[in-house]
Amino acid sequence: MSQNFKISFALEESDVAYFRKIFRNARKAAAGQDETEIIRAVQELIDRVRTTKKTPHFVRDAVLVLEDLVRMIQDADYDLPKAPRAEVLGALAYFANPQDLIPDQIPGLGFLDDAIMIKILEDEFKQELWGYRQFVKFRTGAEQRPWTRVAKGRLPERLEEQRKKIRGDVDRKKRERRFAWW
What we know:
The protein has seven helices and no strands. By secondary structure, the protein is mostly helical. It folds into two domains: 14-124, no CATH class; 127-182, no CATH class. Helix 3 (57-74) crosses helix 5 (112-124) and helix 6 runs antiparallel to helix 7. The model has no long low-confidence stretch (mean pLDDT 83).
């Protein structure tokens, strides 16, 4: 008989500060790393999580955030500006480091530190992720018949308009969030 149960824990402020320090150090180290290598390493982590049989579901769910961050970097239509792009790449560099806190090979726990870092990233890039997801949602429904010549002709202009609007919204949300912390 299979039984599900919930385990929850709260990270104290000092615990979160510890993880954020690791996160900042990874960002600094990323300055000299190649973007392609960072993305490749993150994709390898995602693949390991997906193919490891004993990976907890909460970790499988958490890597969806990594997938969105990678797509955001690679999406030519979204064209993430240089500064946020560098921030996201710096954050993803943590996952390019094979020496993480808990070795991934430990069944059930190996991806726990990765899941915690993903949650920190999700909070850190909350507005960027919101904006990208809004853009993807718009693009998906932008044209009812994208294969037609008329639709193909107007789609790039519509995407550009929407991207600019979303970037403005993201920047406004970031300012509001910073101001709210004061």
